[in-house]
Specification:
The protein is built from 7 helices and 11 strands. It has about 250 residues and is of the alpha/beta class. The strands form 3 sheets. The chain has a 7-stranded mixed sheet with strand order 5-4-1-6-10-7-11, with helices on both faces. Strand 8 (about 145) and strand 9 form a beta hairpin. Helix 5 (about 170-180) crosses helix 6 (about 190-195).
């Protein structure tokens, strides 16, 4: 029997670092809100059965209206104050789904995830209970303590995580059951929760894409507009901006 697959679009952030007066996931790039780009990627994927949107408080009506054209969206719910809180809200909404359900958690601020990345995560979930997406680090990454270099991990062993992150639903539920009981819980993504609270569960890493960028800072909007084929504009002023040259 074919395994059920749900994509959860995490749009609970308000985008303070982006400097936008509205949540960054509602800002348009290429004539379409960032959130709509993200939903479309999963709505159009043949192996995704349903899509759940977790939206920032105060913007549910806008998100619900935006999601209406997408046939696989089964709900738009309010997120928590943190990324962890938003995932917990999604797990609550998926309470009726079986433990073997494949669940993908994707940042709404990554509007250009493609079918190839999604497919690699789903393929890996056939053999693994937790899957991350990564791209090699092009910069040297160092650990710093008190303003001094403490260690320099070999760059060849490092990747930058992206989303979607994929899980067997029962495994992520178990990890969150333990994590939410920890008063010192601090996490930035769901693979981090599994790694910390279910250390015996291996996390498979599959290849990501440089196009799968996260729109976080003002310059990212310029890059996103360029990738979307539109005219890059400053998110604060609306003035046209030339995309940066690629000198790599």
């Amino acid at each position: 029997m074919e395994r059920r697959t749900v994509a959860v679009i995490l749009a609970g952030g308000v985008g303070r670092r982006a400097g936008s007066p509205v949540p960054k996931q509602l800002v348009e790039v290429g004539g379409r809100p960032i959130l709509a780009h993200a939903i479309a990627a999963f709505d159009e994927h043949p192996d995704v059965g349903e899509v759940l949107v977790v939206m920032a408080p105060g913007h549910l009506r806008t998100a619900a209206a935006l999601a209406t054209p997408f046939r696989k969206v089964t709900g738009v719910i309010e997120g928590g104050e943190t990324r962890t809180g938003s995932t917990a809200a999604a797990l609550g909404a998926l309470a009726g789904h079986g433990a073997d359900t494949r669940v993908l958690f994707h940042d709404a601020a990554r509007p250009f995830v493609d079918a190839g990345v999604i497919g690699r995560v789903l393929d890996a979930l056939d053999k693994h209970a937790a899957v991350a997406v990564g791209v090699p680090c092009s910069d040297t990454v160092v650990a710093v303590e008190d303003g001094l270099v403490a260690s320099m991990p070999p760059r060849a062993s490092l990747v930058r995580f992206q989303t979607p992150q994929g899980f067997r639903l029962g495994v992520l539920r178990s990890a969150y059951d333990v994590a939410l009981a920890d008063p010192d819980l601090v996490a930035t993504d769901d693979c981090g929760i599994v790694h910390r609270y279910l250390p015996d569960v291996p996390i498979k890493v599959v290849e990501g894409s440089e196009r799968n960028l996260k729109v976080t800072h003002p310059l990212d909007f310029v890059l996103a507009e360029h990738l979307a084929g539109g005219t890059p504009t400053d998110p604060l002023t609306g003035s046209p901006v030339d995309p940066p040259e690629d000198n790599t």
